[in-house]
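Journal club side-thread
Mid-discussion, someone asked how the predicted structure for our own chain would compare to the paper's figures. Pasting it here so we can look after the session.
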Amino acid sequence: MAKNTKLFRHKTYKTKEEVSEFLQELGQKIGEGDVVLKQTAEDLVLDIPQHLSLKVKVNRKNKKVKGTRHKMTISLSWYDSDHQDDPLALG
């Protein structure tokens, strides 16, 4: 059975304008193919392939004290093999 290795995790509170700006910048970096996530000790450098799996999920959960919580999760996934060129390509 494969084991998950947590490479990066960060949680912060931002205004919707700050979140929008971050997501726009992240989208631009994904389009360029290189994303660098800054951490305190080391940066995590991601080499983004041409094709990705995109999943968007939205949940709602009622909390007794705070009321209804909404959560949007945007997930991108790929395999190392997605970085390989098409073996049938002509040179």
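Post-session note: The mean pLDDT is 89.
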